Amino acid sequence: MEASRALSPEPPEPNAGGARQRYALLSIVELTATLSRARDIHAVIDALLLNLMGHFGTARSAVWLSGPTPEAPPVLMRRHGIGQPLMTVLVTTAWAELEQKLMSDREPVEVAEIWEGLGLHDRKLAAEAGVELVIPLRVEARFLGVLLLGPRLGRKAYGGFDLEMIQASAAMAGLAIHNADLQARALESSRRQRIALQELAKLDTMKSEFVANLNHELRTPLSLVQASLECLADAEPGSDQARSLLDLSQRGVQGLSRVIRQLLTFSDTSRRNLEVNASEQDAEAFLGTFIDERRPGVSAGLRELTFREPQSRRQAIFDGVLLNHVLNELIDNAVKFTAPGTHIHVELSDHVEHGNSWRKIEIRDDGPGISAEHLPGLFEEFRQGDGSSTRAAGGLGIGLALARRLMEAMSGRITVESVPGEGTTFVLFLPAA
Amino acid sequence: MNSESPIAIEADETHGRTAVLRVRGRLDGVTAPVLLDHCAKVQAEGRNLVLNLAGVSFMGSSGVGALLVLVDQFQEQAGQVRFACVSESARAVVDLLDLEEYLPIHGSEADALLAMAA
Question: Which one of A80, A324, A426, B20 has the lowest number of neighbouring Cβ atoms within 10 Å?
Answer without folding.
Answer: A324
